[in-house]
Amino acid sequence: MDIKTASAIRRLRLVSAPEAVSFLLLLVCSVLKRTTDFNAVPVMGMIHGVLFILYVIFWLDAWNRAKWSKGTAALYFVLSVLPTGGFFAERKLRREAENAVNAAIAARARTEGVVNA
Predict the structure, then answer these.
(1) CB count, 10 Å around CB of 95?
(2) What are the transmembrane regions (predicted)?
(3) 46-101: pLDDT as tens digits
(4) Considering the entire predicted model, what is its pTM?
């Protein structure tokens, strides 16, 4: 994997946890709206909507660059629509991003080793 792939995975990872938090807060706001006079649903809905759109854009970019299988791509998408799925996606993506960075460093070292030899 190259560094652009690692960056795409990192962007997706960085937006996954805030998206999950905003989803949970939106659910809490929805309950509060129906049980009290407190109505933060329009604000939280907009925040969550923006974060979800970013997640989908970054998910498409990461899928394209990382050449994920359809199953892996579907897993990351399903995790985005589950209330706590973003936390699991973040953990899994962190490992994948670290592996991608290590692979990029190893590939660069091999290339520079061949050039310098």
Answers:
(1) 11
(2) 39-60, 72-89
(3) 999 999 999 999 999 999 998 999 999 999 999 999 989 999 999 999 988 888 77
(4) 0.82
